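PT: before anyone asks, these are the final sequences, not the draft ones from last week. 230 residues across everything. Please model them as a single complex and drop the result in this thread when it's through.
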Amino acid sequence: GAVVSQHPSRVICKSGTSVKIECRSLDFQATTMFWYRQFPKQSLMLMATSNEGSKATYEQGVEKDKFLINHASLTLSTLTVTSAHPEDSSFYICSALLEARQETQYFGPGTRLLVL
Amino acid sequence: AQSVTQPDIHITVSEGASLELRCNYSYGATPYLFWYVQSPGQGLQLLLKYFSGDTLVQGIKGFEAEFKRSQSSFNLRKPSVHWSDAAEYFCAVGAMNRDDKIIFGKGTRLHILP
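LR: through. Structure below.
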């Protein structure tokens, strides 16, 4: 149980285009999901907290107009990287909060974004 | 300030040898502590977690960790490593209040010698 999926697993796009990444909790409902970014050989940096039915809470320094988050249902959160640039190339990981298991986060497999 | 320190960036051990990965934290409240493992190009998998109770926590894949409040540590151990254990290991700390974020350490890369 507690499986989280992400789609796509890899995406290559041209500079200036937008990319949408989906995060789904497959066998549980998650009122809270998190989006992280990981640079090569670095730790995870929390970008934003996604709450079902309300606006996301962004960390300091994260541009909310660039990284659009929508948590429209209890099993789906999306991250849209708008007008992507090469510096947005990174590994994006989502997690979903499983409240029944004492607030443990379960992570998706990640999405590798490459902006050319 | 809240922080998690993993002092070893890289650790190399021989297959079959014992392993200990260090983690120290600084947290104002009673912490929840986690260890995650990340294989190359993959997401994170939860190895184990400590919330309360017994300070020695058993996890998956033969891993265990011990919470030592006096030392603010939560070191990960395994008595005998396997080549498949080669990965990046992240220690993380959080709190019961869901507004508190999970803070990750910078990770320790584990290399296994045949």
